């Protein structure tokens, strides 16, 4: 593969070896701008680390991508699919979704029911990450994220931390995957020291060259 940036090329070489990617999977990860998406949520030192060690999961934020690319589910970018249809497509393509999530993820449950005070709630998807040693809860939203969505995820995370998590395990991570988000809504809803609840956008098509340029420009503006 002709990748001019030596840091980016080194990252893909390391990740291909670590994860035993096929040529097709390597091409898919490159086409989906994996390196750039990971770099968007990291500071300068962490971006450098990507080229030297690949993706290392040490804290919850290391597992988050911006955005997630779900082109493998086969849903058009502009269509009237529901959250349940999105969930079903992810389950049908679970192997691909695990690859998109990243290193160390295993599937635990879908529509996981939790109950208290005669009230019942269902968590869309539950995973476990063996490197972070914690549960990862995912809620799917087909529109723009609302502060209520983050509050609901906080409740799910609190429940898992208090009722499910073992003493030797780390705190639960909650991810709300949405089609659009207001960064201000996220920042003002969650506490400043938040390290458990995250909101990230998803795309159902591979980014175009113009979108990739926009991602890179966004990364550069944050440095």
UniProtKB/TrEMBL annotation:
InterPro entries (UniProt xref): PD-DEXK-like_domain (IPR053148), tRNA_endonuc-like_dom_sf (IPR011856), YhcG_C (IPR009362)
Every YhcG PDDEXK nuclease domain range: 62-214
Molecular function (Gene Ontology), one example: nucleic acid binding
Name of the protein described by the UniProt record: YhcG PDDEXK nuclease domain-containing protein
């Amino acid at each position: 593969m002709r990748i001019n940036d030596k840091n980016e090329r080194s990252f893909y070489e390391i990740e291909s070896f670590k994860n035993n990617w096929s040529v097709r999977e390597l091409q898919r990860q490159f086409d989906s701008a994996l390196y750039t998406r990971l770099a968007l949520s990291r500071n300068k030192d962490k971006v450098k680390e990507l080229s030297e060690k690949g993706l290392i999961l040490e804290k919850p934020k290391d597992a988050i991508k911006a955005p997630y690319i779900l082109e493998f589910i086969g849903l058009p970018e502009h269509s009237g699919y529901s959250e349940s249809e999105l969930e079903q497509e992810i389950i049908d393509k679970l192997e691909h979704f695990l690859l998109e999530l990243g290193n160390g993820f295993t599937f635990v449950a879908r529509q996981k029911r939790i109950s208290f005070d005669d009230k019942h709630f269902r968590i869309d998807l539950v995973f476990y990450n063996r490197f972070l040693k914690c549960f990862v809860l995912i809620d799917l939203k087909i529109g723009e994220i609302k502060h209520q969505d983050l509050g609901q995820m906080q409740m799910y995370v609190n429940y898992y931390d208090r009722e499910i998590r073992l003493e030797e395990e780390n705190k639960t991570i909650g991810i709300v995957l949405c089609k659009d988000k207001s960064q201000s809504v996220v920042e003002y809803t969650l506490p400043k020291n938040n390290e458990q609840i995250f909101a990230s956008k998803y795309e159902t098509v591979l980014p175009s060259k113009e979108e990739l340029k926009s991602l890179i420009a966004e990364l550069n503006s944050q440095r």
